[in-house]
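Researcher: Next entry in the queue.
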Amino acid sequence: MIDIVFYSGDVTSANAGHHALKCLGATSTDSGSFSKGEIEIRRSDCDLLHSEYLDELGADLIIFLSKHSSSSGTPAFTVHSTGNWSKNAEFGGKPKSLSTAAPYAMLNIIKRLSKLEINGIEKTYEATHHGPLLNTPSLFLECGGNKEALSNVAFAEKLGEIALEASEDVIGAVEYRGKVVIGIGGGHYPSKFTKLAVEKGYAFSHILPKYAISGADGAYNIDMLEQAVVKSHTRAECAVIDWKSVNSKERAMIIKKLDEIGIAYEKA
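Model: Structure for this entry, 268 residues:
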């Protein structure tokens, strides 16, 4: 069963969820959940960042429909895994803990997003961040970044449609399946990794951005790489490093840790 989850307290999420319900043929959007075949659309009982209770419901994959917040105000459709690289867990989850990623489902979604013929809005992976912390494979599918994108009902409805299409592909075993990798370095919106996914079929599970390699306390978070490799529906077979974004000291630490784990790396 694939659960598509929305939260009524988030207008973008609610618009996306209600549209998905209508696409599935629900006659009312008032019920807490609606299922058809192997897809269930569920209204969360709480803010999505703190919805750990979903682990108890037995889904095989959870797709969260959510607004996207951006300090830069850049409008974007995004997809990402959840978890916290550092001791900071201000936005849900637990310190230094990653959820189980869904790399193939995210690859399928990023390829679908890349084909949207909408100018002036980015379609990108985001680095792994925020809660909830889940053992069930999960991902966030988001839209927003500025006021116009957040209030655009058509954008929100497109989220719901893509979530349904991706779910149907997973159920039908026709989704894209590429090399499962972790990403290291780059910014919060890792353009090199998005390009590798779209053009070469790399399926990213977790992405550790440059800014999270060391925490605010000065401690390095390289120890999280082993968790990044294994916390995935399909174990990562390789790491991709945005080479120029990390300094020589960080590279040495990263490569040493990858050698300890027994995982190869590629330069991007």
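Model: The two ends are 36 Å apart (CA to CA).
Researcher: Noted, moving on.
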